[in-house]
Amino acid sequence: MNVVITNRQRAKKINLRLLKKISGALLAELGVEQAEIGICLVAAPEMTRLNETFLRHAGSTDVITFDYAAPKTRTRNPHPEIHGEIFVCVDEAVLQARKFGTNWQSEIVRYLVHGTLHLLGFDDASAGARRKMKPEEERRLAGLSRRFSLAQLSRPARISA
After folding, report:
1. Engineering a disulfide at 115: which of 3, 13, 86, 109 sits with its beta carbon 3.0 to 4.6 angstroms away?
2. How many domains would you assign to the chain?
3. Distances (CA, A) of 153 to 27, 34, 81, 156
4. Residue 51 lies in a domain
5. Is 158 a domain residue?
6. Is the pLDDT of residue 141 over 80?
7. What is the pLDDT, as a whole number, of residue 95?
8. For residue 69, what pLDDT is reported?
């Protein structure tokens, strides 16, 4: 299992070690035995560039997933292998947390779950597919919220003299 997390945003300080533990727990719960995943925390301008370049959608978005695994890897193996990148927009997490009355830390984890489910073959392009994906996303997020203190994703500011 190889999960690499990069932080390319400055809006929030994030405990990357805890985020890696959370992602490892998620993969274990999902039965994933082999994974090569890059998780990139980005700001809105970078997410806008990705969204417009690769998806041809205007503006920023919360999460974009790039799946690099061969489709056979997911469907034939009861313990799927996943290979891909998940781009998480921290700015969007902050905005959505305000909108939905939650916190940005749980939004970050929601986007991680959402992206991971995409790597497992879940889709949300149609209403029917969303009806299958959304409950799974909610269930996984709730489980991770019980297991980890998501608020701890915000690293305390360092005190300097």
Report:
1. 86
2. 1
3. 18, 25, 27, 9
4. yes
5. no
6. yes
7. 97
8. 86
